[in-house]
Prior knowledge:
Blueprint: E1 8-12, H1 16-28, E2 33-37, H2 43-56, E3 64-67, H3 82-110, E4 113-118, H4 121-125, H5 131-151, E5 156-163, H6 176-179, H7 191-202, E6 213-216
Parallel strand pairs: 1-2, 3-4, 4-5, 5-6
Helix pairs in contact: 2-3, 3-5
Pfam families: adh_short_C2
Protein name: 3-oxoacyl-ACP reductase FabG
Family: Belongs to the short-chain dehydrogenases/reductases (SDR) family.
Amino acid sequence: xxxxxxxxxxxxxxxxxxxxxxxxxxxxxxxxxxxxxxxxxxxxxxxxxxxxxxxxxxxxxxxxxxxxxxxxxxxxxxxxxxxxxxxxxxxxxxxxxxxxxxxxxxxxxxxxxxxxxxxxxxxxxxxxxxxxxxxxxxxxxxxxxxxxxxxxxxxxxxxxxxxxxxxxxxxxxxxxxxxxxxxxxxxxxxxxxxxxxxxxxxxxxxxxxxxxxxxxxxxxxx
Length: 222
């Protein structure tokens, strides 16, 4: 997004060091941005931080929203604890609602916007041990399709990208050697490969694409 010329608002929960590194990468890409610290699983923190920023920057508008939060807390459902369910649902699904609703008002006033939701193969296919995560991401997929129909006349597109196995912190504990045997391209994906797809959906060239879910999984599932 920085390479495309966007001023980037970087949300983070607690890791100031990594957030600052991300901001430095934004600057190295020729743009600028700022950090916004709040827990996206906490609707009161969202309201206090993001709503405050929007009100303090009435002369600026958020044109692109990327909802890319997600957390895994895997367990078979028979052993799934209440807090495991709540944490995953709040982080992936409820945050989509509270953040998008705040940003959407400005987009509708400006009659322009791009909303890209990062979902998951788990939300499309369902994966054992991930009932909570699958439910959360499937919920965002359904919301993506519904919201796209609500706001299309206002010049706003709403799409999702559904990564499969991508080399990130969330897949560090997985057996890549074993899992890649089922992936036609025979490897895990890279974060950059997801980011480029998000960048395209955020661009003006994608104005006629909305309500879509783009799978980025090396051919594993479609």
